[in-house]
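Usage

Read records sequentially. Each one opens with the input sequence:
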Amino acid sequence: MAIRPRRSALYMPASNQKAIDKARSLDCDAVILDLEDAVAPDAKETAREQAVAAVKAGGFGRRELIIRVNGLDTPWGEDDLKAAAAAGPDAVLVPKINDAGDVARYDGRLSHAPDHTRLWTMIETCRSLFHLDGIGAAAKTSRLACWVMGTNDLAKEMGARLTGAREPFFAALGLSVAAAKGHGLAILDGVYNGIDDAEGFERQCEQGLSFGFDGKTLIHPTQVEPCNRVFTPSETEVAFARAVIAAFALPENAAKGAIRVDGRMAERLHLLQAEKLVAIAEAVG
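and closes with the structure output:
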């Protein structure tokens, strides 16, 4: 399967038609048309209609297009899911998953969606942190393909301070990445609320990259460029990855589990990492 880069996923309120139109020209890898947190109750139906119309109209190019719906425990959730399934975006993002049972419920609502429409879930409740393995395992029997960290909601439920360094969330972030990757899922980091704090935002992107996130969710177009820059493999990284691939391709290394490349040890596991890194670099040009 081809690698699809998800360095930057920008939330856009689907109640704002100008924002939807602007998203078609931004350099983000994914656009999340939001029906949930960014939309006031009296604008929910308008947001749903405009999100569906945007999917049908297309024009987003290489960008992955996702609709984030309201939860099934809200007055809008059922209608959101029915409309999203019929529209057929690249994915439907659902909030406040607690366990594998929740995944199954949402997956069932998407049974009539096109085959390409995947299920993305928010990881943003305290309960979900104790069911990560089960939620991830649900990917085997559902459309589940990606997790998105909801650090704002998690901080609210925990009563924790959401600082730029995010010390109270190290365990949650690390375990979420481990569980996602253990089940072959993509995983995106949560948002950074300081729109005008460019330095703080870039530091948190670097932190997310260190944790192993595939990319980050964003709340403003100005965050796209620095996010893409951080999550794009550097020329040095790509050059070493190509060297690892080339070295393992040599006949004399065909049966070896570990070899020396440019003064560094490279194992077979590093070959797999190198192939993925090069694929991402080629995908983003």
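Summary fields computed downstream for this record:
- The beta strands are 8-13, 30-34, 64-68, 91-94, 118-123, 144-149, 186-189, 215-218, 258-261, 264-267.
- The chain has two domains: 8-231, 235-284.
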